Amino acid sequence: MLHQTIKNQIKEALRAKDTLRLDALRGLNALCLNELIAMGSSQEFLPDDKVTPLIKRSIKQRKDSIEQFQKGGREDLAQREQSELVILSSFLPAMISLQEVRLIVRERIATLKSNDSFDPKNSGKIIGMLIKELSGKADGNDVKKAVEEIL
């Protein structure tokens, strides 16, 4: 379980006196605990299917912060956010490459064309369908980019 792993790594970071890792993990653990409370659950650990979106949200926040800090000329803060981003990313499964996304998009569009249910004007629906299908495996921006290139 991801939540249990996060709690265990907090202990390891404490022993190693790794404050950067400790801060990132504590923030993630707090999000998990808040979610448990919001669900009204009596379980000790949040299920993985609930932890993964929290991790993704934290990663997105870090990316936004990095961009803002770089615009503001605060490279020191941007570097710290980048380090936390690496730590948080280690909890997610590996994403497939843009090349692999393109192959999957081509296959799905070919399938839709063969079923006569393809309409290039409905690219938004195609993107939505593929993002849902590839959730957790591919970045949504890569899916959108691949669909737009192919159409």
TrEMBL record:
Transmembrane segment boundaries: none
SUPFAM superfamilies tied to this protein: GatB/YqeY motif (SSF89095)
Gene Ontology molecular-function annotations: carbon-nitrogen ligase activity, with glutamine as amido-N-donor
Stored Pfam families: YqeY
UniProt xrefs under Gene3D superfamilies: 1.10.10.410, Uncharacterised protein YqeY/AIM41 PF09424, N-terminal domain
Protein name: Glutamyl-tRNA amidotransferase
